[in-house]
Amino acid sequence: RSAHAYHSLPMGLLVVGTVLAERGFESRFVDCSFEADYVRRVVEAALAPDCLYVGMSVMSSQVRFALELSSAIKRARPSLPVVWGGFHPTLFPEQTAAHSAVDVSVIDEGERAAADLAEAFAEGGELSGVRGIAYSTRDGVVRTEEGTRLDFGGLPPLRYEIVEPERYIRQPVSRFGPEHGPARSLPLLTGLGCRFRCAFCMNALLRRPYRVKPANAIVVESRGLVERYGIEDFTFVDEHFFGDEARVREFVELKAASGLTFTWDTNARASDFRPGRLNDALLARLRRSGLTRLGIGAESGSQRVLDMIRKGVKVDEVKGAARALHAAGISGAFSFMVGLPGEHPVEYDATFRLCSEVLSISPRSTIIGPQLFRPYPGSELYRTAVSRYGLEEPSDLEGWARRASAEEGYFSADTLPWVTRPRALAVRAFYLTRCAASARRRSVVGRIVVEAARRLSAMRLRRGFYRLPVEYRLYLAFRPVWRRRKARSSVRHLAGMPASPGAEQRRGAG
């Protein structure tokens, strides 16, 4: 854990807590990414006499930690129900519920099921009438009728007080980069679902419908948070905020009329940047409304790969998005990934070259990744990895727990059978990182070194020249020393001692 870690507020659990509150139930929220002693905190909450059950949201890469926590709860209070929701139990409900440390799996959207379970446990524990779950019995695992979708448009404003919002507001590092400075910021969920069916995303399997809050509801909810918590900035965390263009235009008009001055950022698709959609005129209006940054899922520099993953985006549209954002004075965050099943090594170069080109077109933008493709269950590409490349799928939760990696998130390039040149990926990622490095807030010598490395790396990326990677070898040689120095710096931060003059002010620490 780092004192500089950026903690993202788990919006799904906040929606669950809001629905529970609407049904008259109080929830206690423990963020395991924040709490070093989260097991003790959760067990203490579980021992409360009025605790009906403990629920947790679990991805496949989190199974190991969720099992440790569930087992600790069962040791402390064996009769208390443990409920798993999220992606992993949605994909493997019977396998999850069959484990001795788990009583119930919630399948797909869990907001209604969470409240129905609370009522069922309060009334004696009969679960057969709760829709959208799988639960264990003496005779095996029972799966109930499919659950119903949440009426998201009719959901009241989220109850941020459930999650101690000040911990998330006072972030140590601004998402927008040093030129923007720290801001009192919160995420705001204004839409659910996605109309697109990318082959790497489990939306293609779940087919969750696209649902949004009306523009006036966004303004009302944001005003409440501004007045209550002094919020200066929002991140609209919808998967596709611009999926309803009329709503976007109405929101801009209502925000201007309301007198609210907060800044905001959200996500868009590269294919949105075209006449009639995110054109220059609309981008200018959005910038005046406070839009500072857009996240773009660019994914690949190879058109063949983009078509293979059914992204519905052209490489030229990614470049066009970078040009449009630069002209409008809006930052972009372009995310990429490499190492997909069926991707050729030469296409890695196309992706890294596009990353470098985007930075040249829009210098204020940033590159996220390119991240290594992680074959999470539920996507079409995951099924391809299993059927065509022999990726082994665990048969129980212990198997998933053994696969999880805290450092890599799920897999490393060396463990993916379809990645034929893992070192080539590492070298290219190194040069892209150096190309995007900022020389701000460094010593004079540091700025000179960083700028020289940036220019050399940009040249390598443009020309696709990675032979004799001397800089990369030096980095590997000195990395253990840098890591030890960084660790000592983190210890000083955690002890409340700034690592350098002014560090506390820069972090915005309270």
Span between termini: 18 Å
Mean of pLDDT: 83
Q: How would a textbook summarize the main sheet?
A: 6 strands, parallel
Strand proportion, as a percent range, falls in 5-15%
Helical coverage, percent range: 40-55%
**Low-confidence spans: pLDDT under 50, at least 5 residues?**
1-5, 172-180, 486-510
Description:
This protein has 510 residues and is α/β, with parallel strands linked by helices. Helix content is 43%, strand content 12%. The chain has helices at residues 11-22, 38-46, 63-76, 87-91, 93-97, 111-122, 166-169, 203-206, 215-229, 245-258, 280-288, 303-308, 315-328, 345-361, 380-389, 397-403, 422-435, 444-463, 470-494, 503-507; strands at residues 54-57, 82-85, 104-106, 133-137, 140-143, 185-188, 191-192, 211-212, 233-236, 263-268, 291-299, 331-338, 366-372. The strands form three sheets. A six-stranded parallel β-sheet has the order 6-9-10-11-12-13. Strand 4 and strand 5 (140-143) form a beta hairpin. Helix 1 packs across helix 6 and helix 17 (422-435) crosses helix 18 (444-463). It is globular, with a radius of gyration of 24 Å.
